[in-house]
Amino acid sequence: MSNKIKVAILGYGNLGKGVELSILKNPDMSLEAVFSRRDPKSVKTINTPVYSVENILDYKDKIDVLILCGGSKDDLPVQTPEFAQYFNTVDSYDNHAQIPEYFASVDAVAQKSKKIAMISVGWDPGMFSINRLFGEALLPDGETYTFWGKGLSQGHSDAIRRVEGVKAGVQYTLPSTKAIEEVRSGVRPSLSTKDKHTRECFIVLKDGADASKIENEIKTMPNYFEPYDTSVNFISQEEFDKNHNTMPHGGFVIRSGNSSNGINQVIEYSLKLDSNPEFTASVIVAYTRAVYKMALKGEFGAKSVLDVAPALLSMKSNETLRKELL
Amino acid sequence: MSNKIKVAILGYGNLGKGVELSILKNPDMSLEAVFSRRDPKSVKTINTPVYSVENILDYKDKIDVLILCGGSKDDLPVQTPEFAQYFNTVDSYDNHAQIPEYFASVDAVAQKSKKIAMISVGWDPGMFSINRLFGEALLPDGETYTFWGKGLSQGHSDAIRRVEGVKAGVQYTLPSTKAIEEVRSGVRPSLSTKDKHTRECFIVLKDGADASKIENEIKTMPNYFEPYDTSVNFISQEEFDKNHNTMPHGGFVIRSGNSSNGINQVIEYSLKLDSNPEFTASVIVAYTRAVYKMALKGEFGAKSVLDVAPALLSMKSNETLRKELL
To answer: Quaternary structure (chains A, B) (predicted)?
Structure first.
């Protein structure tokens, strides 16, 4: 047996595949298994064995951390409380408005099982959350602005695809250029979510589906689309396959604040991502290492990225980190 | 007595004044005292009482955290080990090459006294260090680039002013525009420190001082100037007062990496600061809160920003942070 961190994945879509790719870049980890609800023979990984989720409990003492790669809308609210009974877990739950409730339901289980359940890991929620916190803690007299895009949102695309009658669909988030420039200038404008972004959906319908019903269902979906200026475009499968097959994303968090009268300080964190799911996966894998280290120290319960000291993310010793990075 | 975090400052220069200003923006903290080696009557604070450092131990049970605002070259290596015997401390020690040695000397004291000594807090070392760590942990297959400026460096200006014969002096760090563009393009160029920056000094001489001797002493100063392309300019006191009286700074940390073949991901963290000492002070004050919370939990020893979970920096409860920021 190696002394690498033993990891397993539940759910092998874009995110699960991203996690498999990311673990290949992290030599202190070993991906032991992919678990799927599908027929294991139908799941093609890079080089990881696939098992049915029905057998997952056979692995409960063979896995240090289980990475839950299901969707936030239907999968994670059920899976995380279930599997946090048996495994240290990491997930990327991204329905911001429901996070307190989700945290509570996961924490109740993880407190009993004495496992760590790290929720909502990725870049937003995730790295952007950390930067929002840094921004307001460092410059209490200030304003924080989060912009997304242009990019494809996994969570929102997932939500679209679950609407009855949708054969294929993607959602792009676009930042408002005018709003960005205003914020960067050091002014502190008052901007609603609608002022900052628009949402653009491209959908392929199933045969006989009702376009206007689907458009209405998407535009009124609470939290996901209802608060935004959303456009819904119906296109052919051919056009979809040609123009909507990559998953770029990005965005930034800006804190503009005053340390004293007239002294303006601007902090900006930004991401330019060729692949959103692969970057989310990369963040998840780094936090998987943190979960492993926190569990070794005897910690347990639900956690978020806000609870993790940066050094826990690294393969390097604290001494090396201080020497090389501080 | 209030139940605010009780803070004191040792050393009231630009940084000490910045800390006093920052604490005014943080309603959960109370600045109880400024301690100085100068005659307390000669030190003009905004509204904080000033005492002689000789009386500092009278306050050892009245202060939760002592912020050490002295210089890295001569003050902190003596002061921090001395005062970590009696106080939880925060400092901004910024001589990167000497950090491991400095950490060890402070840790030896803080382990015995069971106090927390948080070293090297600010933006570099500090927020930039955290972002270098995040960069390599999230994208292990990549390169990190740190650029500074254009801006005035406190530590380097301090070092200049300690050179015999120097009446007044400032040092500006300038990033190379060509190098920045190369990095942002997603290429991973190999750049030495000299390729990325130059250092520019403006100095007013004391009467009878030997300019060429001073120029040589600066250019050959280890760690501070020797590895850089440094220019030294001698100017009049009049020109100095007119053109070199503000302390702007900035810079950025870029991580360019691949999550898989051909998939490039770029993370960028940047600062645009009207006042470098005030921003450093703002970071110090946030980490002062973290020191207080860590001490309450019974932790002790030398620490760095890499050891601090983001939530510890905030005035808000973990519940509120998850709800508002995650």
So the answer is: Homodimer.
Q: Is A304 close to B313, i.e. CB distance below 8 A?
A: no
Whether residues A322 and B306 touch (CB distance < 8 A) is answered with yes
Cβ of residue B248 closer than 8 Å to a chain A Cβ: no
**Alpha-carbon distances, residue A237 vs A215, A240, A243, B72 (angstroms):** 17, 5, 10, 64
φ/ψ region of A25 (left if φ > 0, alpha if ψ in -120 to 50, else beta) reads alpha
How many CB pairs below 8 A link A and B? 202
User: If you search the block for the tokens 């946030």, which residue do you land on?
Assistant: B286
The reply to whether residue B310 touches residue A125, judged by beta carbons under 8 angstroms, is no
Name the DSSP class of B56: G
Q: Do A133 and B265 touch (CB under 8 A)?
A: no
**Which chain A residues are within 8 Å of B325, Cβ to Cβ?**
129, 132-133, 136, 306
Model confidence pLDDT, tens digit, residues A136-155: 999 999 999 999 888 988 78
Local mean pLDDT, 10-residue blocks, chain A (326 residues): 88 97 98 97 97 97 97 96 98 96 98 98 97 98 92 88 96 86 86 85 96 96 89 96 87 95 94 94 98 98 98 97 96
Q: Is B39 on the interface with A (CB under 8 A)?
A: no
Q: Complex ipTM, two decimals?
A: 0.87
Residue A177: exposed, middle, or buried by beta-carbon count in 10 A (0-12, 13-18, 19+)? exposed
- Measured distance CA(B45)–CA(B9) in Å, rounded: 11
CB contact, 8 Å: A226 with chain B?
Answer: no
pTM, rounded to two decimals: 0.87
Alpha helices for chain B (secondary structure H) = 14-24, 76-83, 99-113, 127-138, 154-161, 177-184, 193-196, 211-219, 237-243, 276-296, 318-324
Give the pairing of strands B88-91 and B65-68: parallel
Nearest CA in chain A to B273: A265
Q: Distance between CA A10 and CA A67 in Å, rounded?
A: 6
